[in-house]
Amino acid sequence: MPSPKSQRRGGTEEKNRKGRLAEKAMSFSGLSGGSSAAVLLQRPRTVPDLLAGRRNSSAGSSAAAVQFPPKLTKLLLNVTIQRSTGALQVLIPPDSMVEDLIAAALRQYVKEGRRPVLASTNARDYGLHYSQFSLESLDRTEKLAALGSRNFFLCPKMAETVQTTSSPSSSCSNEVDKPTKSIGLSWFKFTL
Question: Is the pTM of this model over 0.85?
Fold first, then answer.
């Protein structure tokens, strides 16, 4: 609010005060206060609506994106090998089959020098499962894109299953069917 003095003088005091503020601002920015010519800073050119160009160009391409979704070039799959400490990450084309994934996982395992050392690196000696709890192995001719999972478990087949390849199931399902000979009444003695 203007003081009564500034009203009497016609606002000259207010003009002087603004001039002093301008001088202080110039001295703050490194310019000498003695120069009365105000130096204007160059303001960078800005675009008021940054998304305007994007909205216009994406309007035509959104219909194309709906019609043609991007094609998968590689799948990243996690394969855990029995008795191994962690999962292998395998990059493989989506049109590959289960047998290709087994071979790629075995190559990756040997390449990384993981432990324990595998008895065989032949893909025919192993079966691929959805998890360590699934009993039946996956069909070797099935495509990976049709499986619906990205996590798998690789289990070695038993010696008799490897020799006779007529059985499509792996060692896990054969282990369930075997009668257990070592279990008798010996465990019953400890419960009493």
Answer: no
How is residue 146 written in tokens? 């049709």
**SS3 sequence of the chain:** CCCHHHHHHCCHHHHHHHHHHHHHHHHHCCCCCCCCCCCCCCCCCCCCCCCHHHHHHHHHHHHHHHHCCCCCCCEEEEEEECCCCCEEEEEECCCCEHHHHHHHHHHHHHHHCCCCCCCCCCHHHEEEECCCCCCCCCCCCCEHHHCCCCEEEEEECCHHHHHCCCCCCCHHHHHHHCCCCCCCCHHHHHHC
**Whole-angstrom Cα Rg for the chain:** 38
Question: Per-10-residue mean pLDDT for the chain, 192 residues long?
Answer: 54 68 63 57 70 56 63 92 94 95 97 93 96 94 94 84 47 57 55 57
Per the CB < 8 A criterion, the answer to whether 92 and 102 are in contact is: no
So what CATH class is 75-176?
alpha beta
79, amino acid identity: V
Which of these, 157, 79, 83, 91, lies nearest to 117 by C-alpha position? 83
